[in-house]
Amino acid sequence: MIMNILVTGANGQLGNEMRILAKNIEDHFVFTDVVDASEESIVMLKKLAGEDVNTETEHLDITQLDAIRDVVNREQIEAIVNCAAYTNVDAAEDNYAMAELLNTKAVENLAWAMRETNGLLIHISTDYVFGDDPYNTPCKEDQKGTPTGVYGLTKLRGEEAIQRVACKHVIIRTAWLYSEFGKNFVKTMLNLTATKPQLKVVFDQVGTPTYAGDLAQTITTILADYKRESLSMNDGSFTKNGVYHFSNEGVCSWFDFTKMIAEYAGYKTCDIQPCHSDEYPSKVKRPSYSVLDKTKIKEEMGVKIPFWTDSLNICIDSILKKK
Length: 323
Ligand SMILES: NC(=O)c1ccc[n+]([C@@H]2O[C@H](COP(=O)([O-])OP(=O)(O)OC[C@H]3O[C@@H](n4cnc5c(N)ncnc54)[C@H](OP(=O)(O)O)[C@@H]3O)[C@@H](O)[C@H]2O)c1
Description:
The chain is an alpha/beta fold and about 325 residues long. The chain contains eleven helices and 13 strands. The chain has helices at about 15-20, 40-50, 65-75, 90, 95-115, 150-165, 185-195, 210-230, 255-265, 295-300, 310-320, and strands at about 5-10, 30-35, 60, 80, 120-125, 170-175, 175-180, 200, 205, 210, 240-245, 250-255, 270-275. Strand 1, helix 1 and strand 2 form a beta-alpha-beta unit. Bound molecules: NADP nicotinamide-adenine-dinucleotide phosphate.
């Protein structure tokens, strides 16, 4: 059986990693976004996945419920992987309406589209749904959300919208996402540590980085699991609905993260020093501790999670490799 899968936000970091893995999966993927794939992303996609990787993008704005319904009905979509979001944490503070539209209302639209057709919504949320309460043990899925800013709050509301609509769903909270694609912390720090003599990076915000390639791998495992289950269950039900946490293994600060980025890149000239968050005044208070406990996803989905430095090394190799 071929399953029809819709990927939204397909030209972002995670969406592009989905394109790479989709190449070796027999299911039919429809990649959608509001922007076309950039030239830079297409070059990187072909470098990582070969010339025949799917670089096409169908225009789909997930704030438009009727447009979602059209694609779902035309392509007989059975599962949606939502990689679209308003991800600019600082800008969200001044753009509540936009952040809410994309991170809450549009997510509700996707949930309705899957509820109406009994499909599965795999939605990505964030560790920033936590952080306002001081704690120092890894956050569990059922822990109360305590977002520190608009981004985290609107993402938490998006999760609640899915649960209210009650379509079949898997919500994966992830953290500190980076990849070979788009703009992210790893690429910024590769640039800064190669060119600056000195750099200060905060050491009082602790979490775990996530290589988007590893998250995409986990999503494909869940899709395969869902396909197996929906083939064997006649009533179309799904037993693994719920919220899950996924990041790489381990714990670090942004300072530790930067040190490893420079080390793997072989950049030795930049003096990287730790500093406190208050040395970088920002519109939004970021969580000081948002490590995710991943016990549930490992036990229930059977996924193996690489240690953060191992995945970082792989991604930096891909970024810096010329051919
Ligand atoms: N990045 C992180 O550090 C991080 C951490 C934790 C969780 N997450 C979550 O992980 C998921 C994937 O993040 P990412 O970093 O891969 O995101 P990303 O790179 O920002 O990609 C999101 C994509 O969605 C597109 N988009 C924007 N508005 C849209 C709309 N109305 N309809 C359809 N697509 C739209 C964006 O286009 P434009 O570029 O034009 O906006 C972009 O191509 C998100 O849910 C995010 O909240 C991210």
